[in-house]
Amino acid sequence: MKVYVNEKGMNFQEGIRCFGIKERIKPNGDILILNGFPIEEDKVVSEGDKIVIIKCGEIPNDEELKNLMMSRHTPYVYERIKNSRVAIAGLGGLGSNVAIALARVGVGFLRIVDFDLVEPSNLNRQQYFINQIGMKKSKGLKETIKNINPFIKVDDVDEYVTKENIRELFSDIDIVVEAFDNVENKVMLISEVLKNISTVKVVSASGMAGYFSNNLIKTRKINSRLYLCGDEESEAKIGCGLMAPRVGIVAHHEANMVLRILLGEEKV
């Protein structure tokens, strides 16, 4: 039977157990992961199972690193999304967090779009660092993504999104993540993409301010091409700010919905 060990297909006899494979392949390994879950008790291996053996402190080569990075995934997720193309419009609290999540899961191509600079008030919720203050957000985020997952392609676009450039920016993309602060820009992006680019789906967000209950945040399917994440009520205003915990929850709703769409799981 065929089993994948550190992503390499290998043939073993029926009934072989995980520890037996470890002893053959990497007896000094410290961590043994079976189908995305680390195990301490021996298990019988089945056809098509994925086993990853890791030696703590050992620096892998590039090919090994790429495989080991995805070892905690649900099996066969990475294979199904590695050729996907996702764009993120707006790289603030929502967009920067969505980008990091999709980079970690291994979406093969990310186009990250923003015209703004990193400034100190961004650091309370956005995925930037003190040494990136003054950098273009698109450049700073690309730098961070490359330090997390150097195996994906990142197209950083320093541009303001308008009706005139939407087709150019997003017509070659599978899913657009709307991550703007401004309501008018949100509405413009959603309506223009849905109206003018029939092949693209949109994941949007509304309502993430303050420290209200986590349980008010939800994901709704608006129509066959539009999904909306958030509580749809709590807007940022005087006395009600945007902070990392709740913004992050909504951003990860968006990222998980993107993943579900890419995997063909479009129910919310």
From TrEMBL:
InterPro entries: ThiF/MoeB/HesA (IPR045886), ThiF_fam2 (IPR012729), ThiF_NAD_FAD-bd (IPR000594), ThiS-like_dom (IPR032726), Ubiquitin-activating_enz (IPR035985). GO terms for molecular function: nucleotidyltransferase activity; tRNA threonylcarbamoyladenosine dehydratase; ubiquitin-like modifier activating enzyme activity. Gene3D superfamilies: NAD(P)-binding Rossmann-like Domain. Residues 70-266 form the THIF-type NAD/FAD binding fold domain. GO terms for biological process: cyclic threonylcarbamoyladenosine biosynthetic process. Residues 1-56 form the ThiS-like ubiquitin domain. The keyword Transferase applies. Keywords: Nucleotidyltransferase, Transferase. NCBIfam families: PRK08644.1 (NF006395), thiF_fam2 (TIGR02354). This is Sulfur carrier protein ThiS adenylyltransferase. It comes from Clostridium frigidicarnis.
